[in-house]
Each structure stands twice: as C-alpha cells, then as structure tokens.
Write a structure and sequence with these properties.
The complex is a heterodimer of chains A (283) and B (290). Chain A is mainly α. Chain A folds into two domains: 2-63, no CATH class; 72-280, MetI-like fold, CATH 1.10.3720.10. Chain A is 76% helix and 0% strand. Chain A has helices spanning 2-37, 57-63, 73-103, 110-122, 125-138, 145-169, 173-181, 186-215, 218-223, 232-241, 247-267, 269-280. In chain A, helix 3 runs antiparallel to helix 4. Chain B is mainly α. Chain B folds into two domains: 1-52; 57-288, MetI-like fold (Orthogonal Bundle), CATH 1.10.3720.10. Chain B has 13 helices and no strands. Chain B has helices at 2-52, 56-64, 66-97, 102-111, 113-116, 119-129, 136-145, 156-184, 188-196, 201-229, 233-236, 250-259, 263-288. The interface between A and B is large, with 92 and 91 residues.
C-alpha cells in the first residue's frame, strides 16, 4: 500500500518537474514586459525581479500621451481598432457568402475557388507582402488605412472560407430541402436557415480575422507610414529606430496593446480552440 | 400518350432547370466578392511580382551576394532544425497536457498566452532581456559570477539560435494543442489493454500513440514548415537581420532589399524561396483537399 502511494507521489513529482519549467518558459517574457511596465524609469534597468517601488506612472504617461514618442497614442490605438474591426466584418461577409455558395448552393466553379483559396492560405503571407506593397502603390492606396484593411482581408479570407465550408458541409441538407419545398428563395435560406446555424463558426472566424489584423506588423509597417495613420505595432517598431528609446514606455505601450487580444482570446476560447484547431489540421 | 409523357417530362426538366438557374445565379453571385479580392490582391500582385523578377541578371546578382547565401542557409536551419525541434517538444508536451489534473488544466490556460498575444511586445521584451548591459540575463550572470555575460545578439549563430527559440516560444502552444486533440482522439481501451499485456511507456508510445498520430504529426510538421518560412517577426524584431546581415532568413531578406530600393532583388529572393514553398504546398493541398 505504501509502495503504491510512493509511486503516486513520484508520478506527481515527475509531472511537476515538467510543469514548472513549462510555466517559467511561458511566462518569463510576459512577466518581464509587465515588470518594465510597472517599474519607474531608474529601477527598470536594475535587474531586480520585482521593482522596489511599483508604480502606474508609466501607464499615466502613455495614456495621457506625455512623451514625444507617444503624441498619437490614442489615434494609433483607434487605427488599430478600426482596421481590426473592419477586417473582421469584411472577411466575415466575403467568407460567409463564398462558403454558402460553395457548400450549400454548390455553385459552378465553387471547387476551383475553394482550391485557389486554399492555395493562397498555404503561401506564407510574408512572401506576398512585397508584391502587395507595390500593387497598393499602383492602386493609389498606399498610406491609406484601406490598403491595410484590404490586405488583411486578402490574407484572412482563405482560411475563413475553408473553416466555414468545413462547418457548413456538416449541416444536414434536409434542412435546405425542407426550406426549398416551403418556397424559400436562396437569400431566405441564407438568412433564416444558414446564418443562425453557423453562428459558432462565424464567431470563431470573425475573431480570427480581427486578431490577425490587430496583431499584424509586417503589412502595417509596409503599407502605412504617417504617424496619424499607423497602427500601434508600427509605432512600437518605430520606437526601436531611436537610440534614446524610453524602454519602460515602450513596454507599457506593448502591454496595453497585448491586453485586448488576450482578453478576446480568453472570452472566446471555447469557440476558438474547437473551431480553429479542428479546422487547421484535418488529417 | 407517349408524346404527352415526353412533353410532360420535358416540361418538368425545363421547370427544374429554370428553377435551378436562379440558384445557380445566386451561387455565382455570392462567389463574386471573394473572386474580386482574389483577382485584385492575389493574382495581380503575384503576376506583377513575377514580372518584376523576370530579369535573369537579378538572380546572378542574388546568388553572388553572400548575404543571400547566408539567408538560404539560415532559412534551412530554421525549418529543418527549428521546426523539427518544436514539433518534437510539442509531441512530448502533448503527452503531459493530456493528464487529468486541475493544475494542469490551469497551466494549459496560461500556456496558450504566447500564441494569444501579439508578437511584437513579447519579442521586444525578450530583446531587452538579452541586452548586454542592461538586460535581465546578463545582470543575473553578473550577480552570480561577477563576470560580464556575452553580447548575445551580436553573435550571428547565437542570434539565429535565439530567433529560433523566439519562434518556438510563440508557436509551440498552438501545435501542442493540436497534438493534444490528436492524443485525446485515441481510445483509452488500447492503453489499458496494452498495460494489461505488460507494455511499458515507451512501448505504448511506439505501438499505440505513434501509429495513431503519425499522419497528424506529419501534416502539422509540413504546415509548420511552410508557415515558418514566412516567419518575418521572430528574426526581424529580435535581431533585425544583424549583426552584419548575417541572421537574415528569406522572409526578412526580401524586405531588406525592398528597403534598399532593389525591388527586382527583393522579388527574386521571394521567387527563389518557391522551390522550397511549392512542393510543401503541393503536399498540403493533396492532404487537405480530399
């Protein structure tokens, strides 16, 4: 009996031996970010694991735009929100209509469109960035927030279509047939039958596109350049270019910028994990 | 009689055809938004990109540039060493996360954070942690040994190693989760039967876990390789390609040439990545479009 207990304890110890390093590895960079955000300027560089006098002064400076690096903080936060929300909404519209046409209406060429979208999804977005940058220049959209919104819609919609198509293939076709017998038009079928049933997937896909746009750095810094147009990550990147960067303010801004996606992720965790990981890898 | 039957059947097909054509019209109409986006922002840029990269001289210049050769090497290290290492850790950790304990469930909630938060703040945080004078790492080294730590990011191989570690830190949670769901799909009866037959941990892995997960694992591995080829942030935000442009990968090198106003070289770099990208994409398409 004691031997079995001993083995159970040894088992728990083994698990802890994995769990604790995993926890440290995961949290260290995030904790370091937080540490800088609550440290006064002088003690931020001391190498202590907890500041002697934790303070919210940095947040105050950032939120009231008191540093010359931060004169457009609220504007840039607003740009980030605007671009993320617009990307989410437009992607949702494009992907839902396409998935409905491919999966439920079995549109001509639907399979081809699906394969093209899938192909686009697999090409890393970073490789499309340079041609996209040049093309936006030709379209006269460079330095306009629309350029970033359209680029992010392009990047987000293939995966969105694919996830929605997978989800709508699972809906029973008897529903459509019943609606058609009752004389429903395609649009009525879409609005009254399809959309309500697809809600969980729509939430997952909308959130996916929104977070993708919020987190994007490469496209944002290529396509936008005016201080009043750029998003927060580009502003953070610009901090780096200066030699006298106020690191504690950079980290504070970064911390504020990282909060919404973390919050959204945890709020929609149930949808996100099931909807996205299941879609990501179907073996 | 016969005629009438034929006539009626004809009428019926006509009616069906007319009725279905409205549905067909809607089907095509609803595809238009995405097709427009695809034509304007994928096809046109790609065609234009290839046109910009049409000059054979650009490739000669590129292959003579030692920075390009180094970037190809770095990219291969990144996807062959980095991605394989990451997926092996993910496979092992997925075995840890399937244990049913309350604290492990809480840990998995925290574990997802690197994937859930944007990369720029955390990478900058790591970058400062590695700062030779003021960074946390070297301050700790100084306190413990009274000696100065190395200038981490000023060494090309250390810089690349840290870029790979940043990449692993960021994307490990996602792949671990995917593999956890793969492990949870395996019937527990199999393990119980194996345990009764006296199979140890390693044998259980070899004869039950791996055969059930190998397809999923290979799919994940290939997908992760493709995505890692496009990982711009881990390198650019940590080392900026430096020191002396020795830590570039193909994704960051394209942007470097663009900033140097050499668009043809930039596009040529991207085209040069295609022999690695396209075969992987082809495998993925075959696997997923079934």
């Amino acid at each position: 009996m004691t031997r079995r207990r001993l083995q159970a304890v040894a088992n728990e110890a083994k698990l802890l031996l994995i769990g604790i390093p995993v926890l440290l590895w995961t949290l260290l960079p995030i904790y370091h970010l937080f540490l800088f955000a609550i440290s006064p300027k002088q003690s931020a560089f001391s190498g202590n694991l907890w500041p002697e006098e934790p303070t919210l002064r940095n947040f105050e400076i950032v939120l009231s735009q008191q540093h010359y690096f931060l004169t457009h903080f609220w504007q840039q936060l607003g740009n980030s929100i605007l671009i993320a929300v617009a990307t989410g909404v437009i992607t949702l519209f494009i992907a839902t209509t396409a998935a409905f046409a491919i999966s439920r209406l079995r549109a001509r060429g639907g399979r081809l469109v699906m394969n093209l979208a899938l192909f686009t999804y697999f090409i890393p977005a970073a490789f499309l960035a340079v041609p996209m940058y040049r093309t936006m220049g030709l379209y006269g959209l460079l330095n306009s927030r629309w350029a970033l919104i359209l680029a992010m819609v392009t990047v987000a919609s293939p995966y969105a279509i694919w996830v929605l198509k997978q989800a709508s293939d699972k809906l029973p076709y008897e529903l459509d047939e019943a609606a058609i017998v009752d004389g429903a038009s395609p649009m009525q079928l879409f609005r009254l039958v399809y959309l309500p049933l697809m809600m969980p997937s729509l939430v997952a896909v909308g959130t996916y596109a929104l977070l993708l746009a919020w987190n994007e750095y490469l496209y944002a810094f290529l396509l936008l350049s005016r201080d009043t147009d750029i998003t927060l990550p580009v502003a953070l990147g610009n901090f780096l270019a200066a030699d006298d960067s106020p690191w504690e303010l950079l980290m504070t801004t970064g911390f504020i910028y990282a909060l919404p996606p973390a919050a959204i992720y945890y709020a929609f965790r149930r949808y996100m994990v099931a909807g996205l990981t299941a879609g990501a890898v179907k073996s | 009689m016969n005629d009438i039957a034929v006539y009626e059947a004809d009428l019926a097909t006509k009616r069906v055809r007319r009725r279905w054509s409205a549905w067909e019209v809607w089907g095509v109409a609803l595809l238009v938004p995405y097709v427009l986006v695809f034509l304007l922002f994928v096809i046109y840029p790609v065609a234009y990109g290839f046109w910009l990269a049409r000059d054979p001289q650009a490739y000669v210049a590129l292959f003579e540039d030692p920075i390009f050769v180094r970037a190809v090497f770095n990219t291969l290290v990144f996807i062959l060493v980095g991605v394989n290492l990451k997926m092996m850790i993910a496979l092992l950790l997925s075995g840890f996360f399937v244990h049913e304990r309350l604290w492990i469930r809480w840990l998995s909630v925290l574990f997802i954070l690197p994937w859930a938060v944007p990369s720029i703040p955390t990478i900058l945080s790591l970058r400062f942690m590695l700062n030779p004078e003021w960074g946390l790492v070297n301050q700790l080294i100084f306190r413990l040994t009274a000696e100065d730590g190395p200038n981490w990011l000023n060494d090309p191989s250390l810089g690349l190693t840290f870029a790979i570690l940043v990449h692993i830190w960021k994307s490990l949670p996602f792949w671990t989760l995917v593999l956890v769901s793969g492990r949870l799909a395996i019937s527990r009866d199999l393990y119980e039967a194996a345990a009764v037959d006296g199979a140890g941990r390693i044998q259980q892995f070899r004869f039950i876990t791996w055969p059930s997960m190998s397809t999923l694992y290979i799919t994940c591995l290939l997908l992760s390789m493709i995505w890692t080829l496009g990982d711009f942030n881990s390198v650019y935000l940590l080392t900026g390609g430096g020191p002396a442009d020795l830590t570039h990968v193909l994704a960051t090198l394209g942007i470097r040439y663009l900033r140097l106003d050499a668009v043809n070289l930039s596009m040529a770099t991207i085209v040069s990545a295609m022999p690695i990208v396209l075969p992987l994409v082809y495998f993925m398409m075959k696997r997923l479009s079934r």
